Description:
It is a single chain. This protein is mainly α. It has a domain at 10-77. It has helices at 10-21, 26-33, 37-47, 60-76, 78-81, 83-94. Helix 2 (26-33) packs across helix 3. The model has no long low-confidence stretch (mean pLDDT 86).
Amino acid sequence: MGQNYQQLGLRERIEIEIWHRRGCSTQAIARHLGRSPSTISRELRRNAKRTKQWRGPYDGERAHGLARRRRWRDARFKLARRPNLRDLVRDQLAMGRSPEQI
């Protein structure tokens, strides 16, 4: 791939919200932020879904909170999903290494 990807930040999500409310296309928003159009499209699709509690349009602050929650939740189960990593960590702990060293 060769590309370095960084997560969208709160400021970028607010910019997406502003440009989206103005009716700009995902292409225009992507150009403005220097991001891929697929990143903007994915962000809008993921975080603008209507739920029982949320009926409004895309909201940058809400989207940022949802993304942080998803990242946190995903990290909790990393060892459960990756048996090789789990075995490595278990072996390293058995050898007396601390979690910080691992």
